[in-house]
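ok, trying the design again with the full structure, not the truncated one.
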């Protein structure tokens, strides 16, 4: 699929596309990445997970989506 190559792309400091979607509050992107198998618990260089980033920035809908997969 078009998404599968993005799931495991890692930026310079360990950030994944799911980290970016969570940080910026992109619910649709997060949902597509998770449906494709993106991992919720991956930590970037500072130990932050996508779940942490969404909570830190108060992106409630992204948190809801991530929690559905995580728990």
């Amino acid at each position: 699929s078009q998404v599968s190559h993005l799931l495991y792309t890692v930026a310079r400091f360990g950030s994944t596309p799911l980290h970016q979607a969570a940080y910026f509050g992109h619910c649709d992107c997060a949902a597509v990445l998770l449906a494709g198998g993106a991992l919720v618990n991956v930590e970037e260089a500072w130990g932050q997970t996508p779940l942490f980033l969404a909570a830190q920035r108060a992106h409630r809908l992204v948190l809801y989506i991530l929690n559905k997969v995580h728990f």
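Keeping the full-length input from now on. The radius of gyration is 11 Å.
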